[in-house]
Amino acid sequence: MKSGSTIAAAASRLRLFSLRELAVHRRRTIASIAVMAVSAMYLVAVFGIFGSITGSVNRLGDGIAGIAALEVSGITDGGFPDTITAEIAAVPGVATAAPMIRMSAPTPTGPVLLFGADKSSSELGGALKDAVSQPLEDLSASPDGVQIGPGVGHKTGDKFQLGSGEVTVTDVLEGKQLADLNGGHYVLAPLALAQNVTGRQGQLDSILITTKPGADLGTVRASVTSAVNGRAIVAPPSMRAARAGDGVKMMNYMALMGAVVAVVVGAFLIYTTMTMVITQRRPVISMLRAIGGRRATIVRDMLAEAAILGLIGGAIGSGIGILLGRIAIGRLPPAITQGLEARVEYWLPGYAIPATLTATVLASVVAAAMATRQVYKVSPIEALAPVGVSAADRVPRWLRLACGVGAVAVFAVSALIVVARSGTIAVVAMSALFLRRDRARLRAHHAHRQSHRRNGPSVRIGRGTRGGDDRAFTAASLGHRNDRAHRGCHHRGDHRYQRRHDPVCARNLLARRGCRRVGERRFSRQVSHQRSAAGSFGKGRRRAGRGPRHRRRVCIR
Amino acid sequence: MGRGPRAPGNAVSQEAIIKPLDTSDTPKHELTIELRDVVREYRVGGQSVRALDEISLRLTGGQFVSVVGPSGAGKSTLLHLLGALDSPDSGSISFDGDEIGRLSDEQQSEFRHHRVGFIFQFFNLLPTLSAWENVAVPKLLDGVRLGKVKPDAVRLLDRVGLGNRTEHRPAELSGGQMQRVAIARALMMNPPLILADEPTGNLDSETGASILALLAEVAHEEGRGRLVVMVTHNSDAAATTDRIITLQDGRLGSDEMSVVPG
C-alpha cells in the first residue's frame, strides 16, 4: 500500500514537474526523443535485417529437417554420391536416411528453391511430410510432375522450365505449414527428376538422419562419420543455418557497432540536454530543496523523465526501424542473398524490441544520471539568494588557466596546420574568432572592474562563497544571471518564455527596456534596492548601491 | 487573536533577550526557538568575515517577528540558520528543544519540509503549474499523490482569499495573488515556523500591506502558536510586526516590541 502510494506520488510529480516542462520546451523534447528514435531505428533495422536472414534459413532448415538428428551434407556445392545413402542406412542406430536434393534452380521467372526427395522424407515429420508421402505415389503417372509451394505462382497443370528440363505442376501445396516454408517459394520434385533437371545424376546435397529410440546420438554420429569416410560432412541439421549465419556475421557485427555508436551519440545528446535542463531548472530545484525536497527525490524524478524520453524515442524508433527493415529486406544485395538457399522473409526476432527499448532507456537514464550529479551542487540557499553563491558556480582558477592554455595550444596547432596546408584566409578567420572571444572576455572583465569599484569586493555572502574577486568576475561573466531581479524567473535567458510565464520577470524586462530608453527612475531604484539587498556587509555599501552611479550602471546594462 | 505581548519602543539589550518573553496570552504549546552565541563566518577574498557574531535570541510562537538591518548585517544569514538552510560555525540553535545546528543534509531537508514554511521575495512559483498545484508541491514531495492533496490545497487558497483562482497559473495572477499562493504553499505542511524573505519587496505598498496583514493573521492564528519571521528592508513593513529585531554588523542592534495598528 505504501509503495503504491509512493509510486502514485512519483507519477504525480512526474506529470507536474517533468511532463509539463517537456511540453513547454517542445523543440528540446522533440530533439531528445528524435535522437533516441534514430538510435532505436538503427538497432531495430539491424536486428530485423540480420534476424530475417538467419531466421529464414533456420526456419527452412527446421521445416525440412523435422525430427532429424543428423545431416550429411557435401563438402562443396557439388554434393556427394548417392551411394552413401545405403551405407548410412545400414549403420546401427539409424532409423531413417532421407536423401535429398536442395538447391536453387533457375526458372523463367527467377530462381526457385528445389527439393528433390523420396518417400523416406515423410519419416522426418517436417513440413514436407504430407506433401512427400501421398502425392509422390501419384507422380509415377507423370514423370515430369512436381508439386509447388503457393508462392511460386503456377496453377495445377501448368508447365514451366525448371533447370534443364520442363516440368508439370501436379499440385499446388496448401496449408499454413507448407505456405510458410520458405514463403511458399519452392518446388518439390521426386528425387530422380530433381537430379535430372539439375544435372546432378547420382549426386545428393543432403541426407537427413533420424535415430532409433534409445540410440546414442554420439555413437551414431561417429558410425555415420566412419561410413561416410570423408566424402561428406556429418553434423546436426542446424549446422547448415549456422554456416549461412556465419556468412553475414561480420556485416551483422559491423552494423551492430554502428547502432551502438548511434546509441552512444544519442546518450551524449541526452547528457547535454539534461545538463541544460538542470541549469534551466536550477531556481526550481533550489526552491524544492528549500522547502524540503530531498536531492534523491529530485534526481529520481529527473531520471524518470529521462527514462520516458528514452522509452518514447525507443518506441517511435522501433516502429520506423521495422518499416526500414522491411524495405531493406526487399532490397538486399546479391552479395548477401546468393549464398543462401532460403528466400529471405522479414522476421523480427522476439528480443529485438525489448532489447532496443532497454538500450534506449538505459542509455538515456545513464546519460541523465551523469548530468544529474549537478543537482547535488544546487544549494537550497539559492532560492533566497542570487546565482553565484553556490559551489557549482565557482570556476576554479586552475581550470580557467588550463582552459586558457589549452585554447592557446589548440590555436597554435591549428594555425600551424592551416599555414602549412592552405592559405592564410583560414588563419585570419580563426584569429577573428579568437579576437571576438577575447573581446567578450574583456567586456566581462571591464564589468567586473566596474562592479568591484562601485560595490566593493563582495556581492552577497552565503554558504560556499569564495573571495569577492572571483565571485564578482563570475557574476560579471554570467551577465544578467546575477541580477537579483531575475531570481524569480525560472527560465533565464529565454525572455520570450519569461514574458509568457512570469509576469514579474516580464515587468522587469519591460522596465529595463524603458530604463534604457528614458532612464526610468522607478526601476533603477527598485533594482538598486534589490542589489543592495544582495550586497555586502557594511553600512556604506547600501548607500552606494542606491546612488546615482549604481542607477546609471543598471540603465547601461 | 492570541497576539504576543506588546512593549512599544522598548529597546532591549542582548542579554535581556535571552530571558523568556512574557507569553501569558499566547497559546500554551507554542514554538520556542533559542539561539545561543551563534557565530557564522564566511571567507571573503581570503579574509574571514563574521556574518553573525555571537547572536543570542529567543523567539516564541504566536508572533510576527521582523528582522531588519542594513545590507550585510546578517539578516539573510540568520534566516538561513533558522530555516536549517545553513549551519552555524559555533553556538547552538534549539528548535523546541531540538538542536538543529548540526543536522546532516538529509535531516535538514526533513526539518525544512515538516517544520518550516518559506515565503520568497519573488514567490518562486512553478510557472507551469496552476495555483492549487503550486500549493500542493510540498505534499507531493512528501509522497502524497496529487488527487489526495487537492482538497487541502484548495482550502488553503480559499483561506488566503484565492478560492476563485485555484486553476489559474502564476502568469495569470497579480504579484499580490502570487505571494498569497506562496503563503498558502508555505502553510501546506502546517509548519510551526514561517520564514519570509522580503515578502513585500516586489509588491506595491497596498498589496504589500495586505500580504503583511495575511502574515500577521497566520502568526496570530488561534491555537497554532505559529512563528512568522520576516526579513525586510522596509521599515514600514517592519512596523506592522509584533517584534522588530535589528541587526548591525552581525550583532544584535536592538529588539523591540511594537504595537501593530488595528
Description:
- The complex is a heterodimer of chains A (557) and B (262).
- Chain A has 557 residues and is an alpha+beta fold.
- Chain A has 21 helices and eleven strands.
- Chain A has a nine-stranded mixed beta sheet. In chain A, strands 2-9 form a two-stranded antiparallel ribbon.
- In chain B, strand 9 and strand 10 form a beta hairpin.
- The interface between A and B is large, with 66 and 66 residues.
The percentage of residues in β strands of chain A lies in 5-15%
Shape of chain A: elongated
Please state how the strands of the largest beta sheet of chain B are arranged side by side.
Answer: 6-7-8-3-9-10
Helix content estimate of chain A: 55-70%
Rg from Cα of chain A: 38 Å
Which range best describes the helical content of chain B: under 10%, 10-25%, 25-40%, 40-55%, 55-70% or over 70%?
25-40%
Secondary structure tally, helices of chain B: 8
H and E order of chain B: HEEEHEEHEHHHEHEHEE
* Overall strand count of chain A: 11
* Alpha carbon gap, first and last residue of chain A: 56 Å
Strand order within the widest sheet of chain A?
6-7-5-8-4-3-10-1-11
Query: How many runs of DSSP E, i.e. beta strands of chain B?
Result: 10
Most extensive chain interface and residues per partner: A-B, 66 and 66 residues
Low-pLDDT sequence parts of chain A: 387-391, 452-507, 509-557
